[in-house]
Every structure is written in structure tokens, then in C-alpha cells.
Amino acid sequence: MIRFIVTPGFNRTVRSLTEAKFGVPTPPCRAVTYPDLFAARRVPAGTYVFCDLERLSDIDLVTAAELHRALAATGRCRVLNDPARVRTRYALLRGLHEAGINGFDAYPAHGWPRPRRFPVFVRSEAEHLPALTDLLPDQAALESALEDLARRGRPLRGLVVIEYCAQPVAPGIFRRYGTFRIGAAVQLDHIVTEDSWNVKWGKAGLVGEDTYRADDAAVRGNDHADVLARAFEVAGIDYGRADFGLVDGRPQIYEINTNPSLGELHDHPSATRRATMRHSHERFAEMLGAIDTPDAKGMVRLPDGARLVPLRRSAERRARAEQARAEEAAAELARLRAERDALQEERDKARRRVAALRRDKEALAAERAALADAQAALRAEAGRLGSDVTVLRRRLRAVTGSMSWRLTGPLRAGRAILRRRGLP
Question: Are 99 and 39 in the same domain?
Fold first, then answer.
């Protein structure tokens, strides 16, 4: 069993392993939060990977380092990532620059640095999010950006100013490489492309099959493994993913994440890309198998060191508070779901009313069209009758204006008199 120790809320990064959705078989894995580990007095023997070290407070980092040593001392646990030795972002980038691996440098933002070269950008030391600023071209722009961050309530402690170091592979197109270290093994896992220097997840449609074939060869050939192995040693990291780019063919390491997101094996339109992803997942599973301790049985007791006891009690209180918050969150979630269901029912009713109104509207439109047709027919009939009346009037005028009509006039008048008198 491999247990990944994570900060609360960040167990989702290894969910594909813990829920057996990685796409290829892996050793059994589980996520354990630091508060749960701090509160424990006994834990199962096995492999423990300390993750999220950049997210720990100073006191939690001390506790984690104590527990790392306690687990290692049992002789029945394999432990990766020593919290006392791992370098996080600023210390890592400084160390990589001093080791000659990176050509760029980094500076703590709260010291209001004067970088040796520009452009630069600002990002958080503990978060794995995009940069907080655009590229800043000079010292004045940097000072303005730092002042703006502080004015908006963002403390500068915990922020890093980093010299820009990236190279597009085509105009406006950048690539990021991801290499894992698991125990002693170092393996190039993936390469993604974006139309931004701040590459994060990758964007579809920017490269084609030729690039996919080149990427497949790079992953299978484990390109740049020697440089990345040196970088992991400088970082003191046994488990993590290094994100880097190539500048003039030379790897430049931007960060090493000790709790990287491990995605499921997804489909892809390219058969070459699918084969590369499967190879990477299979290789990752092999590396996990190499650090697993399947023969470790039973429980190991964690010592009650003088420094650990108060921290453990504090952790127990935090764990109870976390549980209470979790229960409150569950109740709030149930309430929100009920509201959502009610809103969906109202929406369905509204949709049914709209459908009925549409049917009525269509029926009215059909009736209006029929009335218009009848009106047109009546108008046509009236036109025909008007023509007939006109013809009859002309004929009548012709008759009344004829000589015979005038000559027979006295006879018609006499006949009319006889009819009034009742005579035949």
C-alpha cells in the first residue's frame, strides 16, 4: 500500500489512483491528510509519500519532519520526500540557478528585489496557479506591480519574482515538459502546447501528427533524464513532477510539484498520442510498483516526542474541527442540492408552460392563416359579384334606353293600373 500524505482538500490529485481509475493497474493507493496523520498514534506499515510540503505552515512542516523520521526509524516503512530537506519554489529555483542548471534566477518579493535581468513576473511560492502578473519589462513596472499587489491586500511574503526564461517553438507557441521522479526512477511523462508563455494544461489543435510522433520518441527515449535527475537531487525530492521548457535545447526547470495531478487515461483523436499516453501511464505504474512495500504488515507505533505531543493534540483539535466543518459542509451541500432540485422542477414546469404557449401560438397562427385565406376568397367573390352587377347595370341601361322600351311605355303603365285594380 502506498499512502500519499496531502493537505486537506488536495486528495483529488491522486483520486485516479485511490479510486482505481488510472487506466492501467497500479499498487493499492490511499490519500491521508496531514491532520489525520498528526492525530494518529499507530499507522499501518507501508510506503508513505509526503506531498504538498509547500502548502504546510512552519509548525506543520516541523511536525511532518518529525513523523518522517519516526516512520523511517521503524524499519517497516518506506518514506519519500523528507520535509526537512525538500526545497520549495524559491529555494529550489535559487539552488537550480546556483547549480548551473537554470539560466534564470528568482528573488523573494517581500525584499523588493532588483533583478539582474528583465522581463520578470510574480507568482505564489505555495500555489500551483498561473502567474499573478503579466511579464514586467523593467524595474519601474515591477515596483508598480508589487505596490499594486500590496494595495489589493496580497502580502508580498510568500511571493517570488522570477526572471522570464522561455522560448517559443513557433511564433506565439510554447511547450512545457513534465518529468516524474518516483524513488530512484526519473521518466519524461508528457509534453503539452499552448499559445501562451505561461503554459499550464495545453491547448488542442496547435500541433499535428508530426509533433505527436516526435513527442512519442522523446517520451520513450526519456529525453533530458540526466539533467532532470540532477534537478531532483538539488531539490531533495524523491516523488514529484518537474515542469520545464527548452531554451536553446537546454532544460529550464520552472517548478517541481510534490502533489501533481494524476489524470485518468483519456481518449485522443491521434492514435500516436493515445499510444504515448498509455506508455506513460504504464511506466508510471511500474515506478509506483518499485516503491511499494507489499510485504509490510501490521501497525507501527508513532513516538510521543516532547515536541510532537502538543502538536498532536493541536492536530486532534484541528481534526475534530475539520470533521465539524465537513459535517456542516455536507448539510449545506444537501440544502443546496434540495434547492437545485426545486429550481430544476420549477424550470421543468416553466419549460412545459413555454411549450404549451408555443403550441397555442402555432394554433393561433394556423387559425389566422385560415381566416386570411377565407378573407381573400370572400374578396375574390365580391370582386366577381361586383363585375356581374356592373354588367347587369349596363344591360339595364341599354334596355331602358332602347326605342322599344319607350314605345311600350304607355302599355306598361296601363298594365300597372289594371294590376292595382285587381284586373287581369
Answer: no
